[in-house]
Protein: Lipoprotein
Organism: Actinobacillus seminis
Amino acid sequence: MRVLSVIILTCLLSGCWTMFTYRESYTIDRMAYWEHEKSKVKASSELKNKCFEKVSHIDNYENLYAKCIYEQGYIFKTTSWLYCYHRKQECDIYNKYRK
């Protein structure tokens, strides 16, 4: 147990931790999704595009985009904690739409 603790501590201090948390951008983006609160169906591309088109011309549109999807009955979900690790800004905005 002590050896394992030393190995983990060494990885954290040396920067090797990023080796274990690194994921490609497209992998990270697939970790987040919008799920209907009652039916548990993921939001369609059409719905996401409709909300995006409404607010894309506005600076910092993420909050309005999330609000639009949320008002349709969807809640924000992630499949892994790595999404919020890599996408802190989006996660901070979308967290209030988790329920």
Remarks:
- The CA atoms of residues 36 and 87 lie 22 Å apart.
- The chain has a mean pLDDT of 84.
